[in-house]
Amino acid sequence: MEVWMPFITDVGFPVAVTFYLLHRIEGKLDDLIETLHQFPEKLMVK
Fold first, then answer.
1. Is residue 33 domain-resident?
2. Which helix (H) or strand (E) holds 25?
């Protein structure tokens, strides 16, 4: 157990932050993809 504790504290925090940021950006990426799919339709309508 003594070997695992430094590993968890050193690696666990960056992993948790990475998952949090990926979760936050996922919704924004979905919106961006949807906008890019609608872009050609908006260019055709004048």
1. yes
2. helix 4-44
